[in-house]
Write a structure and sequence with these properties.
Blueprint lengths: L7 H4 L1 E6 L10 H9 L11 E6 L1 H8 L5 H10 L3 E2 L7 E4 L5 E7 L9
Antiparallel strand pairs: 1-2, 2-5, 3-5, 4-5
Length: 115
């Protein structure tokens, strides 16, 4: 997913900043303005983690290109990197400007160090 392309959010999904407890980090225009001018280490998102909410079609055609998407989702689930509903590999989320939508909810633990 290239977040610099203007249509990415409409095409692939959303990314959301969360704190260590998994609660979304709230932003307003003042915070965004301050963060744009803050030095490295002084931004409000520096200690935040990122989770990804990916639409099923984008998951299948872009993230799992050339692979079996069901297998990939199963591996993510087994590794604890996918938040899902019981008996499913997807999760319902209310997204900006949309009703309840099914997404693959990829958790920040996907980037955690493995020892």
């Amino acid at each position: 997913m290239d977040d610099h392309r203007p249509n990415t959010a409409l095409r692939a999904g959303f990314k959301r900043f969360v704190d260590e407890q998994g609660h979304p980090v709230k932003f307003d225009s003042a915070t965004d303005y301050s963060d744009a001018r803050a030095p490295v280490g002084g931004r409000s998102t520096d200690s935040s983690l990122v989770e990804y909410l990916v639409f099923p079609e984008a998951f299948k055609t872009e993230l799992c290109k050339g692979l079996d998407s069901g297998f990939v989702a199963g591996v993510l689930r087994d590794a604890g990197c996918l938040k899902h509903e019981k008996g499913r590999l997807t999760n319902n989320q209310r997204l900006p400007g949309m009703a309840l939508t099914r997404v693959f909810h990829i958790l920040p633990t996907i980037f955690a160090d493995v020892d």
